[in-house]
Amino acid sequence: MSKILQDFDISTFQNDLVTWFSNHYRELPWRENKDPYRVWVSEIMLQQTRVDTVIPYYQAFMRQFPTLETLAYAEEDQVLKAWEGLGYYSRARNLQSAVREVVESYGGEVPSTRKEISKLKGVGPYTAGAILSIAYDQPEPAVDGNVMRVLSRVLYIEEDIAKVKTRTLFESLLYDLISKENPSFFNQGLMELGALVCTPTSPGCLLCPVRDHCRAFAAGVQEQLPIKAKKKKPKAKQLIAAVIRNEKGQVLIERRPEKGLLAKLWQFPNVELESTKNAQQVLGDYIHERFHLDAAVGEYVQTVEHVFSHLIWNIRVYEATVKGVPSLNDKYEADWVDDRTIENYAFPVSHQKIIQGNLRKVDDTIGFTAEG
DNA sequence: TACCCGTGGAT
DNA sequence: TATCCAAGGGT
């Protein structure tokens, strides 16, 4: 038993937390049952993503891929399309890869040991503990940002929660702290408390079911905890993009690389611009080099900003045209698309904005045109 | 370990 | 407006 838990009334804390969760939990789509697949999908979607954002995606995803098998046998592009706009797209590719692994190596049954489930792509320490406790009632810790915030306050811990090592400290404490009778409600209770009461700013201590256990409240320092190192500012990057139209009114899109930022999503051809250079010239050269197309780069249309957690794109969009309907070399994956087929491709948000801002249907059969 | 990997809502 | 951040994982 850690020194931190000396003089801490574990059993009463467990009871107060589990009782509160039993009476106050939100009814959410992934709480309808304990199907490990449903719990799994929800935990992946909820990574770094708010509940209100996830709900509609989760419901649509479950209609489209109701079982582990339907997801395993789906086309990857359909999974990415279902994830479009949710962000962190490697989650979607890793989830499908892991689901296929479960079908092939575990007979379609989600493994129920930490050792095995942790081998699955995209299942880290938190997600493993969440699935094991919620779907399989195992007393395994599930340490997310909520849990670290709540326990930093309750136990008055001043370690920097931005450090990975601090998470392991909480995990070791939780093996002693977690309710062995109801690990599911205990873990969900910690997270629900963090989401609804023990919030980052102005925590609702007067409503808190474990206030009597809380060392930070007793000391009046709940607003000063948890300790968290500040993030660095994202770096800005200037891009120029082309909406290249052929004589059938179709536009050219290309697929991003298999790894890295926005992997496997589609986009309009674009290139980084060094500030001193002429945008139209650079774009025309780039299109010629990459696609062997002689494009007439025309008017500047608009600017789209795309803010990532670590990067900011400022994209200046230009119109361009090519004669005829040139065939595309197969060195890069690219397509001519019209308004009927563009909906089948998954785009990052910045390029959805380009579509919405610059391309609109001109009739009910084919073609786009510039707005404004 | 520190950095990469999205997005949109809250303050 | 700027900053933070929300049920993290991979490398």
What does this structure look like?
It is a single chain. The protein is of the alpha+beta class and 372 residues long. It folds into 2 domains: 3-224, Endonuclease III, domain 1 (Orthogonal Bundle); 235-369, Nucleoside Triphosphate Pyrophosphohydrolase (Alpha-Beta Complex), CATH 3.90.79.10. The protein is built from 14 helices and 9 strands. It has helices at 10-24, 36-46, 51-64, 68-72, 76-83, 90-105, 114-117, 125-136, 145-154, 164-177, 183-196, 215-219, 279-291, 349-358; strands spanning 235-245, 251-255, 266-267, 270-272, 296-307, 311-321, 334-337, 360-361, 368-369. Strands 4-1-6-5 form a 4-stranded mixed beta sheet. It has a 3-stranded antiparallel beta sheet with strand order 3-2-7, with no helix packed on it. The longest helix is centred in the first third of the chain and has 16 residues, at 90-105. Mean pLDDT is 92; it is low at 361-372. The protein binds a DNA duplex (11 and 11 nucleotides) through helix 2, helix 3, helix 6, helix 8 and helix 9. Its EC number is 3.2.2.31. Residues 45-196 form the HhH-GPD domain. Its cofactor is [4Fe-4S] cluster.
